[in-house]
Amino acid sequence: MLVCSELMVIEEGSGVVVPEPVLMDAVEIETGVAIRTGRENHCEIERRRRNKMTAYITELSDMVPTCNALARKPDKLTILRMAVAHMKALRASDVSQSEGTGNTSTDGTYKPSFLTDQELKHLILEAADGFLFVVSCDTGRIIYVSDSVAPVLNQPQNEWYGSCIYDNIHGDDVEKVREQLSTQEPQNTGRILDLKTGTVKKEGHQSSMRLCMGSRRGFICRMKVGNIAADNMAVGHLNRQKQRNSLGPSRDGQNYAVVHCTGYIKNWPPSGVQMDRGADDDHTSHCCLVAIGRLQVTSTPNTSDLTGSNSNAEFISRHSMEGKFTFVDQRVMGLLGYTPPELLGKSCFDFFHPEDQTHMKESFEQVLKLKGQVMSVMYRFRAKNREWVWLRTSAFAFLNPYTDDVEYIVCTNTSAK
Q1: Core vs surface per residue 103-122: b (16+ CB within 10 A) or e
Q2: What are phi and psi of 200, to 5 degrees?
Q3: What is the mean pLDDT of the chain?
Q4: pLDDT: is 411 or 286 the higher one?
Q5: Are strands 256-267 and 287-295 parallel, antiparallel or unpaired?
Q6: CA-CA distance, 293 to 170, in Å (whole number)?
């Protein structure tokens, strides 16, 4: 089959352009169309391949903790490099656990063969001095709580189970906890604290992390303390009672304890586990917070600590890294004559004797370098009556557990008479 095409030619002497028919084989036309179609198909295949690769690398980036900790979205090569490093670290951890305990399990979990799951759970919760609980992110309903909530908060397990988490915390902390349970995109674009790195970042870079399963949560709130009788001989009972009573009753007469909750957003129930669900759960996403609650040591001294035999010869203070008072207990009045508000916000160096300024600055820098180790020093401090009082101070730097950076300095100040 031949196809007639037109070729534009110029007649001699006339300068007129007239079309001249040209015969073109249909096979040549079909070949050209096939070439163009093949090129288009190849481009489409390459485009789909690139999109798939980008999707897989993005998913890999969400699974690697070090990638999530970055403020900017890493490039593909960085994601692959961090993923390889993460897998090497996991493999090295599995090998070290297997060699150290004789457990050759390769499923990514570790449990001593001589312990049952129930025994291991009790050991972990006792070591953490806390309790495990699971809260529905949609409703705030507590769908699981361990029996260790009784010794920690004096609350029976059956009263917590099935109740709303907001009914068990202080009213002023409800919105904060509700924000931690939320998996929706925030309405305002502010700044958030990344608990993995301890750095403050723009929320726009990390807002997508709230929607990821496995996102970490960490917050401090006040929880109600119950009235059930605890065994006085129980391990840690006196310490828990001391920490719980540090806040004292609130205005409504209810006792509260400061609890530090850390956990992860997970799907509930876990895969392969069948649980009974109420009718109100049919339309929920079953996204839950699985967390451990532990008593948080507060900065408020206990009343018993302030009325002992040495109450007039000792007081506790807390300082910023610049030396400013951020907390002073009321016993300072008996020793130096100042009230706590008279010292808060002021630099401790303004009260040191001029001859002690140099070695106190050196001691202050040394405390920051020791990072948690206790250091003692003697010096003269100006009292409110303008007299110089000799003090012996034992100081240590408190470290942020997530960043290992110094947050403040705690000082126990005693009269050196």
Answers
A1: eeeeeeeeeeeeeeeeeeee
A2: -90, 125
A3: 74
A4: 411
A5: antiparallel
A6: 15
Q: Please give the structure tokens belonging to residue 49.
A: 């391949």
Distance of CA 218 to the CA centre of its chain: 5
Tokens of 181: 């349970």
| pTM given for the model | 0.43
Strand 406-415 and strand 314-319: the pairing is antiparallel
Q: And the tokens for 226?
A: 């119950």
How far apart CA 279 and CA 247 sit, in angstroms, is 40
The dihedral through the CA atoms of 365, 366, 369, 375 has a sign that is negative
Take residue 106 and report the two structure tokens written for it: 């390769």
Q: Quote the CA–CA distance of 144 and 166 in Å, as a whole number.
A: 15
Tokens of 168: 């068990």
Say how far apart CA 396 and CA 344 lie, in whole Å: 19
Tokens of 157: 């397990």
Rounded Cα distance between 181 and 399, Å, is 27
Helix (H, G, I), strand (E, B) or coil at 352: strand
- Whether the bond between 269 and the residue before it is cis, its omega within 30 degrees of 0, is yes
The per-residue pLDDT for range 349-402, each reduced to its tens digit, is: 999 999 999 999 999 999 988 877 888 899 999 999 999 999 999 998 888 766
What are the structure tokens assigned to 50, written together? Answer: 């690139």
Q: How far apart are CA 252 and CA 2, in angstroms?
A: 99
Residue 294 in 3-state DSSP?
strand
pLDDT of residue 296: 73
CB 129 within 8 A of CB 294: yes
